[in-house]
Amino acid sequence: MQLENRAELEHFCSLLTEQDYPNLYTAFMKNAVAKRFEPGEVIVFQEEILQRLGYLSAGEAEIHLTSFEGDTIIAERFPPGSLLNAPRYIDGKGSPADVIAVKPCTVLFLPYRMLRSDSILDAETLRLAAHTTAVLYRLTEKVYRAAMLLPLKERIIHRLFLLKDENNSVDITAEKLASYLGVSKYKIHRSLNELEKESRIVNTYGSVTLVE
User: Fold this and answer.
1) Can you give the pTM of this predicted structure?
2) pLDDT, tens digit, for every residue of 111-143?
3) N- to C-terminal Cα distance for the chain?
4) Residue pLDDT, tens place only, 149-203
5) What is the CATH class of 152-210?
6) Which of 160, 123, 137 is nearest to 22 (CA)?
7) Alpha-carbon dihedral of residues 85, 89, 95, 97, nearest 10 degrees?
8) Torsional sign, CA 207, 97, 61, 43
């Protein structure tokens, strides 16, 4: 499941290609408005109705879902190449989540009115939005399946695998990991200690390394 999820996320951030969407790709590269976001800055607010399509050209952003009671869970982390606000091009609904920069981000924006004014651009954008929505559904399905079927320690390993760098390390606190998994940080602390005793991770303050 870990490899499958990572492959799905890598697929998501490589959807917009010059080969598959030549006109839309060119529009992003030549006509888009670039905006920079610092870590912690909100790129898209939950329920916000934007009239533009976004392309994360640099940096990383987290997807935060907040309940009516104010509880927040981090659903995913988007790498460069991810598309923002694509499903709205189809259904016109507001964003289902906050999109928050975790590293300095550059986002390229194209207004919907420009995309819809050109029949070729409109067709490519609709096709890309549908593809993006399908991939997001698959990602959500896998996150839900992991949450429902896996024990907490395996969910932790699963999430760390998705977030790890080339050195198998993740810069993350127990509190942030708890937000990803929707449990208390105390349960995370206990599980991390158990995983370290089992020699599956090396846990230091603010960083976790997976042991192969």
Assistant:
1) 0.77
2) 999 999 999 999 999 999 999 999 888 877 877
3) 16
4) 789 999 899 889 888 888 999 999 999 999 888 888 999 999 999 999 999 999 9
5) mainly alpha
6) 123
7) -50
8) negative
Rounded (5°) CA angle 121-126-130: 150
- Helices 2-12 and 119-149 cross at an angle (nearest 10°) of 160
How far is it, in rounded angstroms, from Cα 8 to Cα 6?
5
Place of tokens 């976790």: 208
DSSP 197: H
Locate 149 and state its tokens.
């079927």
For residue 196, give the amino acid letter.
Answer: E
As a CATH number, domain 2-147 is 2.60.120.10
So where are the chain's domains? 2-147, 152-210
d(CA 12, CA 137): 11
In this structure, which amino acid lies at residue 120?
I
> Do 75 and 30 form a contact (C-beta atoms < 8 A)?
no
Q: With 0-12 CB in 10 A as exposed, 13-18 as middle and 19+ as buried, what is 117?
A: exposed
Instruction: Please name which of 166, 15, 137, 13 lies closest in space to residue 75, comparing C-alpha atoms.
Output: 137
